[in-house]
Write a structure and sequence with these properties.
heterodimer; A: about 325 residues; mainly alpha; two-stranded antiparallel sheet; globular; B: about 290 residues; 12 helices; 2 strands; about 75% helix
């Protein structure tokens, strides 16, 4: 109990601190943090479908691309305001999931992972070839947001921050709800869940739709933020693999773990970029290898075991008994 | 005539694709491990051929054993001292480990060989058979023949030797194999070595028909994924079959549709096959399919 209260206080304090950051940090760090928030959203979205439901949606970045291109195409070709394009982007992602979810969610494990990867590559190629609408490989330049640089940076910072908070809240609610229990029962034994009367197809599809919607929002904001998108940048498998790494390193199937993973990996890459320019890829790789070997269950469990042994020895002992 | 030419190109390319996917398939089938560093290992093999060829002038085809041996040793060491530490844990943790390994390999390749595109042109590269309007270049034909030979050797090794049988036994049931005296961790190290060695030898072959640079490995990892799923996990003839299907489909797609759809075709094919026949075309019941 005490452990939970302390955890909650730490999280709320961190949330408030991050909300205050734009008022004293410089633009470089604001940009970095906005980027970290974006990865936190993607990671949390992966967590909902892979961590809670047990379906490793490797190619979830397809929704990022769909969101980005919905915003891009609608703003450039149809002059629709940004806020509305986010909603349309979400709708596109939801329909995509509804349409492909039912056949693809029949697959399990690695096979599901690869099928989602295939969906991403196929969608990327189609977007690449619809040059009249999407600009093809030339990319798409979005209208620049008006106003001064600082204000714009704060706008995108708070957009990503808000979406990240939304993703955390959604995950928390799922973890406590009947729906969340259903998802977790699918993760541990799908046939068992089915025989207990859970409509597994509906649960799986819903979980993936929530995940898709969150990823789509991040994509929409990214498009407007970067004001230039191209298929190879927004349907990039590196983004997918990175968010998967963050999700696993943070702690699969927990509310805060994936967020920690995102912060850890992105901060490390930023430092690696600035201090080891020629070796930053390798340094990141080495860190990933070390973390996998020394914390094979992810950060959050590592922290729980190590820290709580010192701070909350009693509560842990009670639990074990 | 165009039809025949496209078909021949597809088959010649498909043989190499099959060979490229072979090591990936064996590692996945035996250890339930997806090796994301596979593409970088292929590229490393290509660089070994490049270095040996430019420094000693040795024919690229003769460098195949060298890159095979170097990559075998690398794979053996990596599995023995790194992956074996976590192989019993979560499947996706080992996946992430190979991702980390991939980043390290890419960085090493960039550091050693720079990001420039390289290619190898042996003296016979412009030559070929000309039958009316059909054209079969010697290099591509040689690469195709070597791909099939390597596959055949691997097939015989897996089915006719004691070590090969031990690897197969481990892939079917590792606990039972352990009970009859197979040293599982050693078998894993050898399997990863073989997978990496196959990647290295494919790299030598690919260096003759493609330009390569350290960051192009991912393409081969992705293609290997598709091929293994098409042909069926752990099946050696299946990998060649999957490679041929992909090679032919890609070549026809780039002629019939806009060339931009070439890559899309392979992935659309992948999703369709997965949904209709999740075990692949020649797939048998193999380890990773039954258990998560």
């Amino acid at each position: 109990m005490r452990e939970k209260v302390v955890g909650l206080v730490v999280c709320v304090a961190a949330g408030i601190f991050l909300a205050c950051c734009p008022f004293f940090l410089n633009l470089y760090w604001l940009r970095n943090l906005t980027n970290i928030f974006m990865f936190a959203i993607l990671t949390q979205a992966v967590n909902i479908i892979a961590g809670y439901t047990g379906y490793p949606a490797f190619g979830n970045v397809v929704f990022f691309g769909l969101g980005a291109y919905s915003t891009g195409v609608l703003m450039v070709k149809f002059h629709i305001p940004f806020a509305i394009t986010i909603l349309i982007g979400i709708t596109v992602c939801l329909f995509f999931t509804l349409f492909f979810g039912i056949p693809v969610l029949r697959l399990k494990g690695h096979y599901f992972a690869i099928a989602t990867l295939g969906l991403n590559e196929a969608t990327r190629a189609i977007v690449d070839n619809l040059s009249d609408l999407t600009g093809g490989g030339m990319g798409l330049s979005l209208p620049l947001p008006t106003g001064d640089v600082g204000a714009n940076n704060r706008f995108f910072y708070f957009m990503m921050y808000g979406t990240m908070m939304l993703s955390i809240t959604v995950t928390y609610l799922i973890s406590k709800s009947r729906f969340g229990y259903g998802c977790r029962s699918i993760r541990s034994d799908e046939e068992g869940a089915e025989s207990m009367g859970i409509d597994t197809t509906r649960y799986k599809t819903m979980a993936w739709m929530i995940s898709a919607a969150l990823t789509g929002i991040a994509g929409s904001i990214y498009a407007y933020w970067m004001s230039y998108i191209e298929p190879s940048a927004v349907f990039d498998m590196t983004i997918a693999i990175k968010s998967f790494v963050m999700f696993l390193l943070g702690g699969a199937g927990t509310v805060i773990g994936p967020i920690l993973g995102a912060f850890f990996i992105e901060l490390i890459s930023t430092f690696a970029w600035s201090y080891l320019l020629n070796y930053h890829i390798g340094a990141l790789g080495l860190i990933i290898i070390l973390v996998v070997i020394y914390m094979p269950r992810g950060f959050i469990y590592f922290l729980q075991e190590r820290l709580s042994l010192r701070m909350f020895a009693n509560s842990i002992n009670e639990k074990r008994i | 005539m165009l039809f025949l030419q496209v078909l021949i190109n597809g088959i010649l390319l498909g043989g190499v694709y099959g060979c490229a996917a072979m090591g990936f398939s064996v590692i996945w089938g035996v250890m339930n491990l997806i090796n994301l560093a596979h593409g970088s290992m292929i590229i490393l093999g290509a660089y070994i051929t490049y270095i040996v060829n430019t420094t000693t002038g040795l024919d690229p085809f003769l460098t195949i054993p060298i890159s095979g041996l170097v990559l075998f040793l690398l794979g053996f060491v990596v599995q023995k001292y790194l992956i074996n530490l976590v192989i019993g844990g979560s499947v996706f943790m080992t996946l992430i480990l190979t991702f980390g390994l991939d980043l390290v390999l890419i960085n090493t390749n960039l550091f050693l060989f720079t990001a420039d595109l390289r290619s190898i042109t042996p003296w016979y590269s412009g030559l070929g058979w000309q039958i009316e309007t059909l054209r079969i270049p010697f290099t591509r034909l040689g690469v195709f023949v070597f791909s099939l030979t390597l596959t055949l050797i691997l097939f015989l090794f897996m089915n006719r030797t004691k070590l090969g049988n031990a690897i197969k036994a481990t892939s079917f049931d590792k606990d039972a194999a352990g009970l009859v005296g197979v040293d599982i961790l050693k078998v894993y190290a050898i399997t990863f070595g073989i997978g990496a060695g196959m990647a290295g030898m494919t790299g030598s072959l690919i260096s003759m028909i493609y330009s390569f640079s350290p960051v192009l490995g991912d393409t081969f990892t992705m293609k290997s994924f598709v091929i293994v799923v098409l042909g069926g996990l752990g099946s050696i003839p299946g990998a060649i079959m999957g490679g041929l299907i992909l090679g032919i489909a890609e070549n026809f797609a780039s002629v019939l549709l806009e060339p931009g759809y070439k890559d899309a075709i392979s992935f659309i094919l992948l999703v369709v096959i997965l949904v209709l026949r999740p075990r692949g075309i020649l797939g048998k019941q193999f380890f990773a399919e039954v258990k998560e």
